[in-house]
Amino acid sequence: MSVTAELLTKAKNYLDITWTDESADAKLSGQLSRGMAYLMDKTGAEASDFEVDGRDQELLFNYVLYDRAGSVDQFKQNYLSDIIGMRMKREVEYAAQSEG
Fold this sequence. Notes:
By secondary structure, the protein is an all-alpha fold. The chain has one domain. 19% of the residues are buried.
């Protein structure tokens, strides 16, 4: 999964990463990519949903925050209700589109 330069910049800002380091950027890109894959699988989101400022992006950045701390399992517990809510919202949207 490809991480855009803009998303990487936004993530660095969110995480208060103010320095430039190619290896750190590569690691952060990998974490963003894994987080996007996880959230897409669990919520039905699309990659483009994470490019826009909003709840999807915030949840992704929090995933990365937990991943950087080695606590992805804790993220899954702490944000379960948010993940379920996102999934339900998308299911309602898809149902409304298919009816309309």
